[in-house]
Amino acid sequence: MFLLSVLGIWKVYMIEKIKQYFTLSKPEIMLLVIITGATSLVLEGSLLREPLRFLLALVALYLTGGSANALNQYFERERDALMKRTAGRRPLPQKKISHKGALIFSLLMGISGVLIFGFFFNWYSALLSLVTLLFYSFFYTLYLKPTTPQNIVIGGAAGAMAPVGVWVAATGSMSWEPWILFLIIFLWTPPHFWALALFYTDDYRASKLPMMPVIHGERSTLNQIVFYTLILVAASLTLVFSQKVGWVYGAAAAILGFRFIRQSFKARASQTEKDYRRLFFMSIQYLFILFVVIVVEIFI
């Protein structure tokens, strides 16, 4: 009985540890990344005949993207402890795992993902994933984020690379369609994260991060949100020129885009936390539904 009790406690302990390490990868964010990557693979089409390789590409994508997120949390562990939004949610500020363990976990994830891309697909995609990982983990986290209010705009390039990376993994070459998906995510990133920053401005001020609302104020941030939302919707409509999607995607992009634009104008007019939160959650719905529609239209 004593041995069974010890084994039970050990099992609970290990499950909790695994959960905390998994949290380092930011699974909520990675869900959207995986959806954008899967959409690119469906749009390209060749791996639909090889479902195991399709899944393996997404596993590699999760490992490299999750590694970048985990390294981001490793480097920002002290700053995260100063912010209410992250201090009580992330494992490193809560000291639930060691920072050395987090670093080793992050590196193992990244190396595994890059090697999967290289050995099972091609070294072109492996190189792209490695450059993206290093760009986000080091250049964005250590340089851009603490030095410029344009950090989200420039750093958004890393988060937008998933469709391009898996397309190259499947084909070994580039095409214009994944770059449209890249552009959609790239232009979506500023309105999405600035909406978040608007209702966590005090947190960012306390951590001394030069986020747009902290440096230029709410009105200027809202003007830029409206601007990026307008060009995002315009960019999303260009995908209708692909022979792989048609009026279903075009109608969805127009309707979703109209709702997103309307909420951005509403947030600018009201300047209330309620509308900032609505804009933030609407941005998630927008990207998720838009990419799901691409997949649905291809299959129907």
TrEMBL record:
UniProtKB keywords: Cell membrane, Heme biosynthesis, Membrane, Transferase, Transmembrane, Transmembrane helix
GO CC term, one of those recorded: plasma membrane
Cellular compartments annotated: Cell membrane
NCBIfam families attached to this UniProt entry: cyoE_ctaB, PRK04375.1-2
HAMAP family the record matches: CyoE_CtaB
Note: Carbon 2 of the heme B porphyrin ring is defined according to the Fischer nomenclature.
Protein name according to UniProt: Protoheme IX farnesyltransferase
Source organism of the structure: Caldithrix abyssi DSM 13497
